[in-house]
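input
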Amino acid sequence: MSNFFEQELRKLFADGSIIESPQFVGRACLGTLGGDLRVRAQFVTGIIANQYNALKIVVLNRTDGPVDTMVLKLKDLLGTKAAPYIWDDSGKAQWYGYRPTIADYETIRQATDDYLSVFRAEIHRERPPAPKSKTPHPRRGQER
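output
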């Protein structure tokens, strides 16, 4: 049975287009970025302990640990729409004051993708070029 946080993370990342091979564990979504890079996304609190008002994204190297962390505040992403946050009242979590729309989820997804794309670009730049063949291919009509 999934909890509220897992359900919300699934709405954002279950399709695997932003976080590859997503796995949902407790209140977190874990997945891969490519190479040795992994990612963890979870809703986090601000000043008030049971008000989850931001999405924290941690990029991890599989062997070396944390690479970078970004905290995306929902208010910054979604505007002043009643300061959206998840309220956790004795284990029963729900959106408080404002329920995100499909467009809001897409805004959160896009901000996450923009952030993670920096690390995906690094993965692609680090790949060495394919080795060039040292033996020339015979031309047509000159096969041995």
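quick obs: The chain has three helices and seven strands.
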